[in-house]
User: Which sequence fits this backbone?
């Protein structure tokens, strides 16, 4: 089984950058998807960025496209989210997620993921 643990959150001013890390314990195989979700107070959890391991394909929600980059270091078994040009609306708790048998079209549907980290808080001030 897989265990996930996020780190790297914090408070930054608008326009700043953060890099989130998700350390995975366990085997991440070719059929896995991994993703970053976020949830702000009073809002639904939304998918931000996802990666399909088998195809090494990345996907982004429109609101972060061009600003965020998802990547994975296979040797370190770690998922990253590089966040640049941060905006106050990016403020949320960010969660790392993984699923063993990924249906790519459902990559931003939270209920397909069965492995979750505890979350790391990102706060962006104007």
Assistant:
């Amino acid at each position: 089984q897989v265990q996930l643990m996020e780190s790297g959150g914090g408070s930054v001013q608008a326009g700043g950058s953060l890099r989130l890390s998700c350390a995975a314990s366990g085997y991440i195989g070719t059929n896995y998807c991994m993703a970053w979700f976020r949830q702000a107070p009073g809002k639904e959890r939304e998918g931000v960025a996802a990666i399909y391991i088998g195809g090494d394909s990345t996907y982004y929600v429109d609101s972060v496209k061009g600003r965020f980059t998802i990547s994975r270091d296979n040797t370190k078994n770690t998922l990253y989210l590089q966040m640049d040009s941060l905006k106050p609306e990016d403020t949320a708790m960010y969660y790392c997620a993984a699923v063993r048998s990924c249906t790519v079209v459902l990559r931003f549907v939270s209920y397909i993921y069965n492995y979750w980290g505890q979350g790391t808080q990102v706060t962006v001030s104007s």
Notes: The chain has a mean pLDDT of 96.
